[in-house]
Amino acid sequence: MSEQQFVHLIVTRQDGPDGKPYKEEFKIPYRKNMNLISALMEIQRNPVNSKGEKVSPVQWESNCLEEVCGACSMVINGKPRQACTALIDKLEQPIRVEPMKTFPVVRDLVVDRSRMFNALKRVKAWIPIDGTYDLGPGPRIAENERQWRYELSKCMTCGVCLEACPNVNTKSDFIGPFVVGQVQLFNSHPTGAMNKEERLEALLGEGGLQECGNSQNCVRACPKGIPLTTAIAKSNRDATKHMFKKWLSF
């Protein structure tokens, strides 16, 4: 077979959380309409590297394969994105695949995104209700507000915005762009607004809004096109009003 009939991948691997990363090359048969997940599945079926050595299968995460769950986030040719929508025909070869560096590596391309879920807990990213009984019809929401909330609700906690953000690093405690969008989502709901001040206080705490450098990488990298910079601007305004309100109450 000619070289064009193969897919050449260079995968950054790591055998465990405390292991050292290393690169391993694979050449797999090309098939039309492959995505990166298909390529990784081919390696899983026949885990032999480009030297002909039998190796352990590459570990990764995936679920929906429709760019909805966010599980298959990784760095592909230097860009954080979803592997399920990374089409082989549109990627420059050799295809370099790495885990996201913002999160601790569990193994190979699998990372621990606990910091994202802890951030959601910190800002109380939920609508509190008292009991499970019938509360009747919910409050009516204006169409423009509904559309705004719908855009924010697309977040799939994939971690791409954190990987792309230069302010999320070992020297910063920045909570991340995604969580600011979720604060806007829940604060703009009539019931969620009951905890609005608590969420704003969380954003004003350590690693909050003051750590954002407005690089706008997050909105460019977001696979769902969520208006994160608009959410950050709105949250800055809300937080400023909240601080003035506190100051005037003294």
UniProtKB/TrEMBL annotation:
The protein's required cofactors: [2Fe-2S] cluster; [4Fe-4S] cluster; [3Fe-4S] cluster
Entry EC number(s): 1.3.5.1
All copies of domain 4Fe-4S ferredoxin-type, residue ranges: 146-174
MF terms in GO: 2 iron, 2 sulfur cluster binding; 3 iron, 4 sulfur cluster binding; 4 iron, 4 sulfur cluster binding; electron transfer activity; metal ion binding; succinate dehydrogenase (quinone) activity
Gene Ontology biological process terms in this record: respiratory electron transport chain; tricarboxylic acid cycle
UniProtKB keywords: 2Fe-2S, 3Fe-4S, 4Fe-4S, Iron, Iron-sulfur, Metal-binding, Oxidoreductase, Tricarboxylic acid cycle
Name of the top EC class for this enzyme: oxidoreductase
Superkingdom of this protein's organism: Bacteria
Family: Belongs to the succinate dehydrogenase/fumarate reductase iron-sulfur protein family.
PANTHER family named in the record: SUCCINATE DEHYDROGENASE [UBIQUINONE] IRON-SULFUR SUBUNIT, MITOCHONDRIAL, SUCCINATE DEHYDROGENASE IRON-SULFUR PROTEIN
Name used for this protein in its record: succinate dehydrogenase
